[in-house]
Amino acid sequence: EVHLVESGGGLVQPGGSLRLSCVASGFSYSSYWMTWVRQAPGKGLEYMANINRDGSEKNYVDSVKGRFTISRDNAKNSLYLQMNTLRVEDTAVYYCVRYGPSQTTKTAYEYWGQGSLVTVSS
Amino acid sequence: QSALTQPPSASGSPGQSVTISCTGTSSDVGTYNFVSWYQQHPGKAPKLMIYEVTKRPSGVPDRFSGSKSGNTASLTVSGLQAEDEADYYCCSYAGSQNYVFGTGTKVTVL
Q1: pLDDT digits (tens, 9 = 90+) for B84-104
Q2: Contact between chains at B51 and A44 (C-beta distance less than 8 A)
Q3: Cβ contact (<8 Å) for A44 and B89?
Q4: pLDDT tens-digit profile of A69-114?
Q5: Cis before residue B42, ω within 30 degrees of 0?
Q6: Degrees (nearest 5) of the Cα angle A111, A108, A9?
Q7: Is A117 on the interface with B (CB under 8 A)?
Q8: pLDDT one-digit tens code per residue, B69-78
């Protein structure tokens, strides 16, 4: 069974930094593209960034380019999101998501973690 | 990239059908057959219901179906059940590793 477990969320002041982690299990982690999707309180879903199987290709939504960095460690079955220069509007639940169903699919979000709440406030 | 447009709400009685629209542009929905749909119950993570416009992942009931015409995609839930009451989001690939979600639709089972 596929499991994605996020950690690292919390309260941070504007301008601060936070690193989210996600540990994957139940599938061949290194065979799938991975992504982060966020959801502000009471709002819709928003794609943040994705990363290819070996970490050599990374893509970001314009609003976080230069501030957020996605990375992965296939030896640890882990995905990361380093968030710098955080803004109040970055407050959201951040989901670690695996693309699927096939290993070549980069257009559907098949498995989701439970989410990690990041609150940016002074 | 602007969010895809969905109606804020939709409703139907048990056993009836409800269809949710998702309107984009020629840069996303109109060009790519990579529209997916997600169901989200309160306080829970989203669940993939439809991908590549019409395909159902394993385990999703065949009461859920997807379609597309021009710049608008649709999700139909047939034979509505109480557990179908949830928020539904569409998503489309928009080229160059860009993805855009819909504004979301709250489905109520009367």
Answers
A1: 999 999 999 998 888 999 999
A2: no
A3: yes
A4: 999 999 999 999 999 999 999 999 999 999 988 888 888 999 999 9
A5: no
A6: 45
A7: no
A8: 999 999 999 9
Residue type, A27: F
B98: closest chain A residue by CA: A61
Question: Is A78 buried (19+), middle (13-18) or exposed (0-12) by CB count in 10 A?
Answer: middle
Of residues A59, A107, A112, nearest to B36 (C-beta): A107
Nearest-angstrom CA–CA distance, A30 and A83 = 23
To the nearest whole Å, the CA of B16 is away from the closest chain A CA by: 26
Amino acid at position A109, single letter: Y
- The dihedrals phi and psi of A82, each to the nearest 5 degrees, come to -90, 120
Nearest-angstrom CA–CA distance, A54 and A91: 29
Task: Report the relative pairing of strands A116-120 and A10-12 from DSSP bridges.
Answer: parallel
Under the banding of pLDDT at 50, 70 and 90, the label for residue B17 is very high
Query: What pLDDT is attached to residue A105?
Result: 82
- Residue B30: the pLDDT is 95
From the list B48, B97, B102, which residue is nearest A108 (CB)? B48
Q: Is there a contact between B46 and A105 if contact means CB atoms under 8 Å apart? A: no
Contact call for A44 and B46, based on CB within 8 A: no
